Amino acid sequence: MVKVEPHDLLKISSINDLITDGLPQWAEDIFPDSLTVVVRRSEIINGKIPVGIRGIKREQRFAAFVMDSDVKEIITPYQLVSEKSWQNVSDERKKLPAIKALPAVAKILQEYKWGISGSVGFELATGTNSAKMTSDLDLVWKPDTSISREGTKNLLAKLNQFGVHADLQVIQGNNGFSLEEYSQSKSTIMMKTLSDPILVKDPWKR
User: Within a 13 Å sphere around the CA of 145, how many CA atoms are in the beta-carbon half?
Assistant: First the structure.
């Protein structure tokens, strides 16, 4: 059985490998170009991996499943960083704020285990032009230790000085929470889990 985590990108051989009751037209049109799905945060049961299909538009998201035996390649958000995959895009795509910021962001996060997700991660992994001038820079981080709210605010200020909103999600096992929400919270914040989101006071202890 393959080992996958939320935000991983999975390549499959055919649109027929998707387990679904049917696809919207936009997915049928665009999906064969990438044959890549994103692992959703949900339970894997009997080898059936919950995945999502991305379209070009923000509202174009569709939930499906694939069998682990049909996965041909796994690309993790952290792999995109270790390979400095932003260097491989065209000069035109490097002008997008969310991609242009990556070399500087990499210097700030060089001591962190971090990865690139969202539309930018999808583009870097597949070559599909999914990022836009207005795209956020979605990042994930597996921490070795917790940081204070003051430390969080300082880190976010550094990441958000390049003309693009950097959204850093902290990964705690199968759970995740927004570092930005944590920095602004006075009481509880939302923790995403494999089932339903829950409210927690201290997300670092989950």
Answer: 4
